Amino acid sequence: MKQRLVILGAGESGTGAALLGQARGYDVFVSDANKISEKYKAELEQAGVIYEEGGHTADYILDARIIIKSPGISPETEIIQQAMAREIEIIDELEFAFRFTSAKIIAITGTNGKTTTTLLTYHLMKETGFDVGLAGNVGKSLARQLLDGEKDYYVVEISSFQLDGTRTFRPYISMLLNITPDHMDRYQYSLKNYVNSKLRIIQNQTEEDHFIYNAEDPILTEELVTRGLFKPLGHGFSIDGSKAAEMYYRKGKMYFFGFWIAQKDTPLRGLHNAQNIMAAVEALRILGADADQVKKALKTFTNAPHRLEYVATINDVKFFNDSKATNVDSVKYALDAFDEPLVWIAGGIDKGNDYKLIMEQVNKKVKALVCLGTNNLRLRDAFHDQIVDIMETRTMQDAVRGAMGYARANDVVLLSPACASFDLFRNYEDRGNQFRETVLALKEEFEKNQQMQ
Fold this sequence. Notes:
By secondary structure, the protein is an alpha/beta fold. It has 17 helices and 20 strands. It is globular and about 75 Å long. The termini are far apart. It is an enzyme of class 6 (ligase).
């Protein structure tokens, strides 16, 4: 008799898990509390997978041998609590897929920088000749990719929510870039719980595996390094070079065993991206990649949209899209990346931000603040003593034009909101896309006016 496999949530990961489960002989049932997209619905129907949408039928779900839960579904959800009471195994799609692959996994987590480092590691591996796939929070789900023929390696971005659903998941190389408080509502407002979640990335690693970590992260070193809690071979990276680290940054250059890389020769700005580069390059060094090929590949990397993405230059003013920066810590990284005077576009749904964390940088670098949101009171109150020029806007067009009005030659206009986007936009991608489109339209308008003069 087939084992019952229930998938809760029919997004990319859920649909991929359903298709893999069907192919591996499970009795698969998919349940989504919301409407399933037509794309995924068509895939499920073509594979003959039974599904429901708009709610959960407990009788079908609680008959499962295994439940694969979407990372976004809280463990406190009633159907999950009922399944836990029956001791049904509840796992993540990455855990499920891992059970069907012999590929080596390079898994990357951290509060910030995951996506950039994942994409960079994948790019470097692909460009230097590795048979590699991209999975997790970027690219196709790992489960789906296993149906198309297995790669030798997979680079996987993995969040704390996904790590919570792992049991046997064992990366060959794991990376923990940093830990700062995030998603506290999901972790009972306990930093310890959040840290423990992140550390699950090394729980099954052995002495044959590798762990790349930030040797300067105070939370990480307190919880992990000083207590010697990890089995894999550790590889630390450091910006100031004062810590015990294999990789360090000095005067714009990143030093590794046997070679160095100047950050100006890469497309990534800021000290936070120097850390991301060091982590990615160290993975390539562990895998035995040629240093010259790695340096060459670094120059051709293109980061994901909305992460310090250069958009355009208008009248000697550069515009950067950092819409993904939805917390103060991310904005801190963005502000660090620039030496030029900044016109800062920020605002949206405040998540209890502590703006004191960036007060010093704002004082030094920001000449004007353009607030973009329906309620910017906390943002204005935080900086009204530091910034003379503050503008209120509720549309992207007004925000971009207002920022351009404050900017002068060689300034930078930076969209780095520090807030969620749902008051005015569908999500951070929509916010970033509207910023890019508005800037490019303004550039076209400016160039037409120049031609007419």
